[in-house]
Amino acid sequence: MEAIVAIVGRPNVGKSTLFNRLIGQRLAIVEDIPGITRDRLYGDTEWTGHHFTLIDTGGIEIEGNTDISVQTRKQAEIAIAEADLILFLTDGKQGLQADDHEIAEYLRKSKKPVLLVVNKIDNVAMVQQIYDFYELGLGDPLEISAVNGLNIGDLLDAIVEAIPSQTMDEVEDDSIKISFIGRPNVGKSSLINSILGEERVIVSNVPGTTRDAIDTLFEWQEQKYTLIDTAGMRRKSKIYENVERFSVLRALRAVDRSDVVMMVLDAVEGVTEQDQRIAGYAHEKGRGMILVVNKWDLVEKDSKTADQMAKKIKDDLIFVSYAPVVFVSALTGQRIPRLLELVNYVSEQQNMRLQTSSINDLLQEAMRMNPPPNVSGRKLKIYYVSQVAVKPPVFVFFANDPELAHFSYIRYLENQIRATYGFEGTPIKLTFRARERN
Ligand code: GDP
Ligand code: GDP
Q: Any idea of the CA torsion for 91, 93, 99, 104, to the nearest 10 degrees?
């Protein structure tokens, strides 16, 4: 379980600059995936072996409100509700502002771990400008320059140290972890309630990781399942709805903890930008995915409707086009039993391990049919492939020069693997390494 670290602060203090600096290199890699939005507000990073997810709350748009200080406050509220650690970013060049006091008070009351960071201290001479910030009562301010990269290592050390340790690991059991993700009102609660209908044995409710999160463990045909973070959905508390309305963070956290994500879409409304973001995140995290189109009863349909809609959804969510689409109605119960069957299927697919000989046969055949193209006079030679992991499946290709493996050829290989073995509902990763000398 990875910790979530949220950057909070007034506009223009440098949140997105810091975010980009901390996420840096990884972002560039991610942008190669077609269809994933460039406008990102979360990203993974790693420091001294500790992984965490960073969120720029400045990127969370609060609907229907243009007042900047209200926006900032709401963003802080979301961070308090969802994050494990808050980076409170201030502007050392501009100095301490009234709004900083307001945010600080709010953060103090929350009792969440907070790191006070003073940005734009671009050189040593500016360091005395941080002393005012002690007034905020949030401990020692840490000075950085997001633009110049000053003290970023110290900041990362401080982050790793301040992340509460219990978020670092989670109790393992043999249940398949499922989350239902989607916009408000798509029918997540209704789906959960129909899955947990009378015939299911609910084994227990166990506290999840966020304050009011509850997971539900149940059994069906001798398989155990955990529904991640069902509390808000089953209770529909006021706080939950307020936070949910703005927050993708809760969804991201649920995705993190899931084996299989049920992305719930409304048959009438289709895919939203937020759905794309979350699906992109699940993809990067290697999670299984099922696209659940709910409220199928509301759609007027003929024999082609389902196919057409499935195609449209897959176009909108092109980077998870491996995910099966299922049309259901929580209201009438149509295909609800199919959902858990699909979960089992995707779970098998993501745990599938191929024989080394058969994957190498496939590689040889794929290269024979479509040899790697020349890249500035040089040719990619792939000698050998090996599956090194499951959930998600990872394949390592040993080649003369990994730099010659272009995106389009990698995609071709992925398509060949999928055409033969399926891996439905799960991302697979193809990586290239230079062949080691014998
Ligand atoms: P956000 O609104 O909090 O996300 O702030 P931005 O990251 O967009 O930055 C606002 C402005 O401050 C931009 O013009 C940045 O180039 C500038 N900025 C960010 N970090 C630093 C820094 O460390 N030093 C200086 N001098 N300017 C910075
Ligand atoms: P959530 O916010 O995603 O948890 O959505 P809810 O489960 O609370 O459902 C929102 C609304 O959609 C409620 O009024 C439900 O009764 C309705 N609803 C949920 N599933 C269906 C469905 O399959 N068909 C129809 N017609 N309505 C549904």
A: 50
Q: How far is the CA of 71 from the centre of ligand 1 (A)?
A: 18
CA distance 308 to 330: 21
Pocket test for ligand 2, best of 190, 236, 296 (most atoms within 8 A of CB): 190
**CA of 229, nearest ligand number:** 2
Q: How far is CA 385 from the centre of its chain?
A: 28
Residue 39's beta-bridge partner residues? none
Which listed ligand is nearest to 232 at the C-alpha?
A: 2
Per-residue pLDDT of the chain (438 residues; tens, 9 = 90+): 578 899 999 989 999 889 989 887 444 334 444 444 444 567 778 888 888 888 888 766 666 666 777 777 777 887 787 788 999 999 999 999 999 999 999 898 888 899 999 999 999 888 888 989 988 989 889 999 999 999 999 999 999 999 876 544 455 678 999 999 988 888 888 898 888 875 555 555 565 544 455 788 888 888 999 988 765 454 444 444 444 444 677 788 889 889 999 999 999 999 988 888 889 989 999 999 999 999 999 999 999 999 999 999 999 999 999 999 999 999 999 999 999 999 999 999 999 999 889 999 999 999 999 999 888 888 899 999 988 889 999 999 989 988 899 889 999 999 999 999 999 999 999 999 888 644
Q: Is the dihedral of CA 155, 161, 165, 170 positive or negative?
A: positive
Nearest ligand atom owner, CA of 269: 2
Among 10, 17, 143, which residue has the most ligand 1 atoms within 8 Å of its CB, making it the best to mutate? 17
Residue of the CA atom closest to atom 15 of ligand 1: 14
C-alpha 330 – ligand 2 centre gap (Å): 7
pTM of the model: 0.68
Closest CA to 195 of 176, 212, 209: 176
d(CA 280, CA 273): 10
Q: Which residues line ligand 2 (CB under 6 A)?
A: 182, 184-190, 233, 294-295, 297-298, 329-331
Residue bearing the CA closest to ligand 1, atom 14: 12
